[in-house]
Task: inverse folding
């Protein structure tokens, strides 16, 4: 079974530039999450989708971050404009809506460096 | 969600059991204990979860105290590849997918 795919794996940009990350979840997983992981910390949830609707975006800095999940499958996370403090690994995860283990499956992440 | 407390780092000899503690003294009756691990440069990976009974799977065992205020993840005969950050998370589990609130975790280093 294919896992969660993310691209690109690495991205280096200058502050004030824009960047977009792409995620393809495991087939059949209706729930999709984006997390931000700053070096030395645990992942922090940015946004949760169920199908193509937003369940929780309370921790998403909406003045510069946006995310969409058209057609309830792939998702894109965008930062515009980027700040130095946005340097982090951005992780995408997916899960079934309900299941015995309620397990989230994570992709490898995109490492963003803002100069 | 309840907050968890874990030691920042631990060492373990290769082939020996690793016992990782977690304190969750404010856990509610409907909250489960989940363990994930994150190997360097990878995304977190589910290990095991439990409510109040001890659990075992092919990766690890989870021991939850009777009052549910703490738990221990046991990795039997830890190989070098078990070196990772281990996260203990408590979260309600209902019919719908639940969010995970990660702390800083425990960096486990398995030494040769």
Result:
């Amino acid at each position: 079974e294919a896992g969660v795919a993310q691209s690109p794996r690495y991205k280096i940009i200058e502050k004030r530039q824009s960047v977009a990350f792409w995620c393809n979840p495991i087939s059949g997983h209706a729930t999709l999450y984006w997390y931000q992981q700053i070096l030395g910390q645990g992942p922090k949830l940015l946004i949760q989708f169920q199908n193509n609707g937003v369940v929780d975006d309370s921790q998403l800095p909406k003045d510069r971050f946006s995310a969409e999940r058209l057609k309830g499958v792939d998702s894109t996370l965008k930062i515009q404009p980027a700040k130095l403090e946005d340097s982090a690994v951005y992780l995408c995860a997916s899960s079934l809506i309900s299941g015995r283990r309620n397990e989230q499956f994570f992709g490898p992440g995109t490492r963003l460096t803002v100069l | 969600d309840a907050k968890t407390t874990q030691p920042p780092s631990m060492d373990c000899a290769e082939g020996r059991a690793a016992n990782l503690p977690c304190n969750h003294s404010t856990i509610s009756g409907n909250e489960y204990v989940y363990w994930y691990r994150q190997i360097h440069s990878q995304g977190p990976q589910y290990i095991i979860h439990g409510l109040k009974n001890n659990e075992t799977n092919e990766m690890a065992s989870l021991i939850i105290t009777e009052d549910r205020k703490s738990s221990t993840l046991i990795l039997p005969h830890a190989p070098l590849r078990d070196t990772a950050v281990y996260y203990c998370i408590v979260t309600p589990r209902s019919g719908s997918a639940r969010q995970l609130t990660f702390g800083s975790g425990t960096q486990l280093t398995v030494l040769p």
Remarks:
- The first strand of chain B starts at residue 9 and ends at 13.
- Chain B touches chain A at residues 32, 41-46, 49, 85, 87, 93, 95-105 (CB under 8 Å).
- Residues 2 and 26 of chain B are 6 Å apart (CA to CA).
